[in-house]
Amino acid sequence: MIRTLLRAPQGAGEVAADALRVLAAISIVVAGIGWGPLSGLSFVLVTGAMFLPRLLGVRPSFDIVFGVASLAAAWSSVLDIYITVRWWDLPIHFLTNGIWAALAYLLLVRFGIVADAATLPRPAVSAALMTTALGLSLGVLWEMFEWFGHNFIDGEIYVGYTDSIGDLLIGGVGALLAGCSMRYLAARPGVAHDREPSPVVE
């Protein structure tokens, strides 16, 4: 995976994804100077997370969507768009929960923590269920973070029962959609994926 991370980008898609990572790094400085250290720190975390798709060698299209969604979510928070446009967090939760759940699933599979759905009797169903479960779990963690932020960091962070349930619901739908698309998302460029899994030697 380190070799994948360090190699030069190949094709326009990978160049675009790397450009988004550069934009995220620039955002650390811009947000830190313009909106304070906490805003800068949020982009440090986003920038680090945006290297995960490259580390895993996912499709450039997935990498680009991950980068765009992560940057949009972070800048929406810094610019208080979630407060001024109350419905805006719904499409953001739908998109980010889906792609983060898909990435979490790929990470867990790559490190051998969960089974690769392709090796199971019902691969499509298994991937969809696992990704949805991960998406809902990530959604709960995010709502806990928002509660913590509201109570201990910034009281302007909006929290509420209806808002939390709506966010979890729409995020779960996004994760389900990502799980149903996992056959495409899990495929690595230039690698055949229709072969049967190698038999297990007893």
Automatic annotation (TrEMBL):
Keywords in alphabetical order: Membrane, Transmembrane, Transmembrane helix
Alphabetized Pfam families for the sequence: DUF2238
Keyword Plastid set for record: no
Membrane-traversing stretches: 20-52, 64-85, 91-113, 125-145, 165-186
InterPro entries in UniProt: YjdF-like
Top-level taxonomic group: Bacteria
Protein name: DUF2238 domain-containing protein
Organism of this sequence: Agromyces albus
